[in-house]
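Please produce the structure of this protein holding adenosine-5'-triphosphate.
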Amino acid sequence: MSTPDQPLLDIRDINVVYRGARWRSPSFHALHDVSMRIGAGETVGLVGESGSGKTTLGRAVLGLAPVTSGTVTFDGRDITHARRRERRALSRDIQVVFQDPYSSLNPAMTVESILAEPLRAQGVPGSEAAARINQLLDQIGLEADAGRRYPREFSGGQRQRIAIARALALKPRLIVCDEPVSALDLSTQARILDLLIEVQEQTGVAYLFVSHDLSVVRYICHRVAVMLKGRIVETGEGDVVTSRPEHPYTKRLLMASPIPDPVRQAERRRRYAALA
Ligand SMILES: Nc1ncnc2c1ncn2[C@@H]1O[C@H](COP(=O)(O)OP(=O)(O)OP(=O)(O)O)[C@@H](O)[C@H]1O
Ligand SMILES: [Mg+2]
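Below is the modeled complex.
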């Protein structure tokens, strides 16, 4: 169980260096001494311009980026360099939703088999898996017969719902969401963000929420970290960082983003405070 002293996810001073692809091609220092903590049931946003290192930090949590120093601790356990078997076990607890619901779902598989895959990989028996799949479809707001259809038969927003259901299948405690609504139109974005909020209220899952869009982050995040050239330059309460930033870089990001929804944000903060 995570407490304020021991957060669910604790990233300390990590550095990520990508080696050059070819012999003698230069390496690239993508993250510099990055630290971040995420509590159980909390949403922490990560914003910054393209190339600042947001996806790299998410990948470091998932064990997919070359961490050269520092530690990633999950639920008190050092997972920085977890081996394959340990990673497989960790996938019960840590899941991911990507930006593009078109390429992240296998077009040759029915929705049912897409959702069954993580369950089968963890040895969940067939009958139990079938019940879980129905539950998941209901949770994300799709009809039960959606399971027999293929990803191409759904809209972008519905596909992202399916990707979210797949991430939820094993009841994870943390989901890395990498620009999960960036490919969607505005009204669909709002509905998917509401779904993520609802899922969090029901399950207590935490999100590391990567986005380049401050208004999206303001809507969904309790806290926000701002990344610039592989460093975190500002962190704080979601609505403070996204409405009264300190750092000139965040101020620039803010000027490029639409009007906030303070009423909604205040309500969300109250609900979070009531949970704590
Ligand atoms: N596998 C890799 N090998 C070498 N360099 C990489 C690799 N992946 C990312 N980089 C570099 O690391 C830096 C950070 O990339 P990253 O994808 O984390 O940025 P980002 O903030 O997610 O950007 P975007 O908003 O465009 O998604 C970039 O300069 C990128 O070119
Ligand atoms: Mg990215």
